[in-house]
Design brief:
The complex is a heterodimer of chains A (about 200) and B (about 600).
Chain A lengths: L1 E9 L8 H14 L16 E3 L8 E11 L5 H11 L4 E8 L4 H4 L2 E6 L6 H6 L4 E6 L2 E6 L4 E7 L2 E7 L8 H8 L6 E9 L5 E3 L1
Parallel strand pairs in A: 3-10
Antiparallel strand pairs in A: 1-3, 1-4, 2-3, 5-9, 5-10, 6-7, 8-9, 10-11
Chain B lengths: L24 H4 L5 E7 L3 H4 L3 H11 L4 E7 L3 H10 L17 E5 L6 H10 L15 E5 L15 E3 L3 H13 L5 H8 L5 E2 L4 E5 L5 E6 L9 E2 L25 E4 L1 E2 L10 H4 L4 E2 L2 H15 L3 E5 L9 H15 L2 E3 L8 H7 L7 E6 L3 H6 L6 H13 L4 E8 L6 H18 L12 E8 L16 H14 L5 E5 L2 H11 L5 H10 L13 H10 L4 H5 L14 E2 L4 H12 L22
Parallel strand pairs in B: 1-2, 1-3, 3-4, 4-5, 9-19, 10-13, 13-14, 15-16, 16-17, 17-18
Antiparallel strand pairs in B: 5-6, 7-8, 11-12
Classes of the chains: A alpha+beta (about 200), B alpha/beta (about 600).
Amino acid sequence: MMRVRLRFSKSETLRFIGHLDFLRVFQQTIRRAELPAAFSQGFNPHLQISFALPLPLGMESVNDYADLTLEKEIPLNEITEKLNAAAPNGLTIKNAYPAENKAASVVCAADYSLQAASNKLEEVLQAREIFVAKKTKKGIRNTDIRPDILSIESCGDFILIRLSAGSARFLNPQTVSELLLDEKKTITRLELFQQNENGELVTL
Amino acid sequence: MNSEKFLQLDKPGRYVGGEINAVIGKEKKSEGLTRFAFCFPDVYEIGMSHLGLQILYFFMNRREDVFCERVFMPWLDMADFLRMEKEPLFALESGDGLCEFDFIGFTLQYEMRETNVLAMLELAGIPLRAAERGDEFPVICAGGPCATNPEPMAEFIDFFYIGDGEASLDEILSRYASHKGSKKEFLEKITDIAGVYVPAFYDVSYGEDGTLAEFLPRAGTNAPEIVKRAFLPRLEYFPETLIAPLIETTHARAVIELARGCMRGCRFCQAGFIYRPMRERNAGELLEQAEKILASTGYEEISLLSLSACDYKNFEELVDGLLEICTKKRVNISLPSTRLDALSALAKIQTVRKSSLTVAPEAGSQRLRDSINKNLTEEEILDGCFRAFKAGFDKIKLYFMGGLPFEEREDSLAIAELCGKIVDKYYELSHEERKRPVSVSVSTSCFVPKPFTPFQWAAQATHEDFARTQREVKASIRKKQIAYRYHDSKTAQIEGVLARGDRRVSAAIENAYKSGAIFDGWTEHFDYETWLDAFEEAGIDPAFYANRERSADEKFPWDFIDIGVDKKFLRREWEKSRECKITSDCRNHCANCGVACHVS
């Protein structure tokens, strides 16, 4: 058995398909690449792949991550090459490396870019708390999102935002975009992070 | 067009193309190319599940001089969006509007999609009626099973293509490539090709009783009196790959076509007559195709397509071969329609995946099953179900038809009785074998008589007839393991008119479309009143087309088409149906249907 992490980007046409469709597209790509993928047990065996964090429909992702289990060891560059040869336009596997943990359980932050300028950056950063109405299972609740805004900076024509992202805490970049901008702008997800032993954010 | 805006639409993945194995526009787009827009008049998810589309797509694209692209009926939000943006309906590969094409070809698989054909033309900025279209517009053609009675759509289509697509399409495309001159001259040039019917070249007159009097080629045209179907004696071409959609479709799976045509001759089934004789593909080639398609698509399921898969001559050999491929690749095998008499092969398939078993006895009583020539005895049904239960199935779906010709009250009661016996069969299993309670789901559809079947003379059941059958079935089901569902009969009434309509029905289809009829095959969009008004406005009595039994000597609007089977044979079958006499399958005994099937 071999657990590999795939770093990939999702763009172009694939922006128009949602997470579940993308999962299927990815599984079919693995099948076309004829990788020795491991399957789950049971009546309806499924190829074992899991994504670090679902990407909403319409959003491009520059560095995204998925963990794949293979039945036997094969060279990492072979995995990348075979997958890229089989991938649809818009999916590029950047590299593959041994997965030491489960991407979905360790991911805790994400970087996004907004193609826009805003004069409200300081205002948001200065605020000690920002309450917004957030839909939860129990209905709409006012929640303080300030702790989940890790950083915001202006960078040329872009605004870069780092937010909590993962199963424990998650802040929708759209919410922040609405605080900063009056109109809807394209959001791109740039990178996903985990915490290392020293509590620093490092890429998955 | 800025596709960014598609993100506001429901399922934008329907409109962006870019699927695996789709032919990429840029490579093929060059001067001197014949451009064909293959239009499926329903949403992407349904159209992409249709194998015929994929076969013809790759068949045409195998030619260097043709670029075939796909177009689907946009969902309502997209249709509004196109109107608002003043953008034409476009093809997925190039994104070009339909007016940029040489041909626009519709596949007519179901009568209730005909208003969608009009919607697609209008969204493309193309006048609906053939007579209103000049040479600046593409040639509009249509094929598929509903083209075997092309008349209700005659006013909208430049030429119909009747029969196997692979048989004459090459000839039509080649003649187009070398054609210089007007559209009318082109249409005149192709009338001698098998399967081609140009409605504008024919004059129709009606008798005082409203039935067809004369149907003749117009003087000065060289259109034939009888249009022969395009026929492929041997199935050879099959694509080495299929387009694998990025979004979930109705049937997202690999498909191989075992055979075209059927040897059974069930009297209600149009496909069983218009695709005669049964033509089988070679098992070795099928296995090769299966491997190639699975490898190039990455699908996790493969389906065996045929009107009656288990009639395939080397079925066991094929299934064994497929099992070997599929077990290795962890691919499931599914059979769309199953005859119970081939359950042993089925049992093997179930080693890959267990699901529910679907059986279509079509009629409840043996008498009515004999009348429709569904050669299936009660013993076979019960025995088959028992074997399926033994093999571990605990869900059985049963399909019946309501409103069959010669149906009596006893036949409806027999449905409940048969289902009850099936439930009892389950309890013949030992206690250990019964892991879960059995579930039998029963449904009745509403029978619609179709052209080129023995029932083309029949009066379709009325609403009252259908409702009575449904009541009787419902009231007679007593066991809690049986769940009963039935289809609405209103759609079936309209379908009945469109199926056996003549050229005058075109006006009603246009009226209905202009009054908002669209996606009529979708229960939530179908509006019966709109159609009734449309018929009235066109001066048409729907009962004349749907609910009238035809006399033996009536001339039908589709009689000018030579579909292969003889009208005399169909009439003999109609008489036998009345007498509840069965006709054996082709392999067993030739019924002299008129199809020259000795072609080897």
